[in-house]
Specification:
Blueprint (H helix, E strand, L loop, with lengths): L1 H21 L9 E8 L3 E11 L2 E9 L5 E12 L4 E13 L1 H4 L5 E13 L4 E12 L2 E13 L4 E11 L2 E11 L1
Antiparallel strand pairs: 1-2, 1-10, 2-3, 3-4, 4-5, 5-6, 6-7, 7-8, 8-9, 9-10
């Protein structure tokens, strides 16, 4: 009887271990290229993200008004599932910005951004999310935030709308398009 229970336990443990290896480490793809247009002020931008580990990715973005200004960000992020429909995310980015009205300087400034956020599926094709973070560029410090909704038309393509709150270009609405890489 003891050998039978031991054999049954080993079989059940091996089945659950094999099943654990087939699960993914997040509910979303972190491999994408993004094109975006900001409204008020009018900006144009691009972003990219690439997974480097099951729970980590590198991320970069650039935005500009094409008026001798820019906002560059490059960093590393983490992501982990909270449940079957949501991921918690965080990023640490190096930011380089030239924006005279915001920084009150005609030269570029470098600083850091740290943020934490959540991504959530509301349905099979609708994703919502948000981030809150701290931006420190030179002597300019502030709390920033992003909220967004994204419609996944296919597995490879999505469109979205994002509200950027208190960021380098102040409060701004952005229209985004993402392509899975």
């Amino acid at each position: 009887m003891r050998k039978t229970l031991l054999a049954a336990g080993l079989i059940l443990a091996s089945i659950s271990a094999a099943h654990a290896n087939t699960q993914t480490m997040s509910n979303f793809s972190y491999d994408y290229a993004e094109a975006r247009v900001g409204i008020s002020p009018l900006t144009y931008g691009a972003g990219i993200s690439k997974s480097i580990h099951p729970n980590a990715h590198v991320i970069g973005h650039v935005d500009t008004e094409f008026d001798d200004d820019w906002d560059l960000g490059l960093g590393i992020g983490f992501h982990a599932p909270v449940n079957n429909w949501a991921d918690i995310t965080g990023e640490l980015k190096l930011r380089n910005t030239k924006n005279e009205p915001e920084l009150k300087s005609s030269s570029s400034k470098t600083g850091m951004e740290v943020n934490i956020g959540i991504r959530q599926w509301l349905g099979p094709q609708l994703e919502v999310g948000g981030q809150v973070g701290h931006l420190n560029i030179d002597d300019h410090e502030k709390t920033i935030g992003h909220v967004y909704a994204r419609f996944h038309a296919t597995e490879l393509f999505s469109i979205g709308i994002m509200g950027r709150l208190n960021d380098v270009y102040d409060d701004q609405i952005m229209l985004t398009t993402r392509f899975k890489m």
